Automatic annotation (TrEMBL):
Coiled-coil blocks: 211-238, 294-321
Lineage, broadest ranks: Eukaryota, Fungi, Fungi incertae sedis, Mucoromycota, Glomeromycotina
Domain RRM: 59-140
Example GO molecular function: RNA binding
Alphabetical list of Pfam families matching this protein: RRM_Rrp7 (PF17799), RRP7 (PF12923)
Domain of life (superkingdom): Eukaryota
Protein name according to UniProt: 314_t:CDS:1
PROSITE patterns associated with the record: RRM
Family the UniProt entry places it in: Belongs to the RRP7 family.
Gene3D superfamilies in alphabetical order: 3.30.70.330, 6.10.250.1770
Length: 327
């Protein structure tokens, strides 16, 4: 059995090169997998009090150039064999305030917790990536996100992100720094949320309920609603014509509701004898127009003249018969 070789180092930086085998079924049709390179070293802290990230340097590993689909499960799968991991802190989550673009400032502030070499790799790649993306983002708002988080799926990191791997003890860190060269797969022990076409299929299914489960929820809701309505009716019946605390009785009127035994309302046609006495509604508008008003006045004057002539003839007839007595 051959001797295990140590990992190669990136010249003049102190970073060790870790080669991982990544599945690539959606990257190209010719290859089943591809290689990706991680760079890691012992974390070197400057000890600034204003640092946003507080990690113990004696048991913290700094990793750079992470794939965009990296999760904590991926990191644990690679490094957990060398010691218990307390936690993983990522730098490169799009919804973090650290990765918002300020349109008025092209120079990002360096993390004081990172050493000069860590800032050189991590900060430099982040700046180059942001400058490349900046013309595509627009200037509508002052701050812009580099990527967006889709509903129902895991968040992708920005390219060339980094992370802190905090071990339970310094022994785990030393074991990780002394790892040897071997084939390492980029996967996780537990199931993680899918990406690509599988992610869209999952989102599609999650947005549509099972008809049987939906029917159960509807039936349960209606059962609770009917119970609440029945309880409310019983409370109203119990308070019906009952004196209150001051001795007053509130008289309530309960109307008769013609309903069937199953709770539904029956609609029947009206009887002929009930309809014949109903007067039709006059749909014509009286004195709505000006000509209607003039015509009404004219007809009223004609009727008055006609009645005056009839009364005049009647009075003349009574005078002829000597029977006219006005008083």
């Amino acid at each position: 059995m051959g001797e295990k070789l140590p990992l190669k180092e990136l010249s003049k930086t102190g970073f060790k090169i870790l080669e991982i085998n990544v599945d690539a079924p959606f990257i190209t049709g010719n290859l089943e997998s591809t290689f990706h390179y991680l760079f890691f070293k012992r974390h070197e802290s400057r000890g600034s009090k204003d640092s946003p990230t507080k990690v113990p340097p004696e048991r913290t590993l700094f990793i750079s150039n992470l794939p965009t689909d990296t999760t904590e499960e991926h990191v644990r799968y690679i490094f957990e064999e060398y010691g218990e991991i307390e936690g993983v802190i990522f730098h490169g989550i799009p919804d973090s305030e650290e990765f918002l673009i300020d349109e008025n400032n092209d120079i990002d502030k360096k993390d004081p917790e990172l050493s000069s070499s860590e800032n050189k790799i991590y900060q430099g790649k982040k700046l180059r990536k942001r400058r490349n993306l900046r013309p595509r983002i627009g200037t509508a708002d002052k701050y812009k996100l580099l990527t967006r988080e889709f509903y129902g799926s895991r968040t992708l990191l920005i390219p060339a992100s980094s992370a802190y791997v905090i071990f339970e003890s310094s022994e785990g860190l030393n074991n990780a720094l002394n790892m040897s060269q071997k084939m390492r797969l980029w996967k996780s022990r537990h199931s993680i949320l899918p990406l690509g076409l599988d992610k869209w299929i999952k989102e599609y299914k999650d947005l549509r309920c099972d008809p049987k489960e939906l029917q159960k929820e509807v039936d349960e809701y209606m059962r609770k609603f009917e119970e609440a309505e029945q309880k409310r009716r019983q409370e109203l019946e119990a308070k019906h014509n009952q004196p209150d605390e001051e001795g007053f009785i509130t008289v309530t009127r309960t109307g008769r509701r013609n309903v069937n035994t199953d709770g539904t309302i029956t609609v029947t046609a009206a009887k002929p004898e009930e309809v014949k006495d109903l007067k039709p509604k006059n749909k014509e508008l009286v004195d709505f127009y000006r000509f209607q008003t003039r015509e009404t006045k004219r007809n009223r004057l004609v009727d008055l003249r006609k009645k005056f002539e009839e009364d005049k003839q009647k009075i003349a007839k009574l005078k002829a018969n000597r029977r006219f007595r006005p008083y």
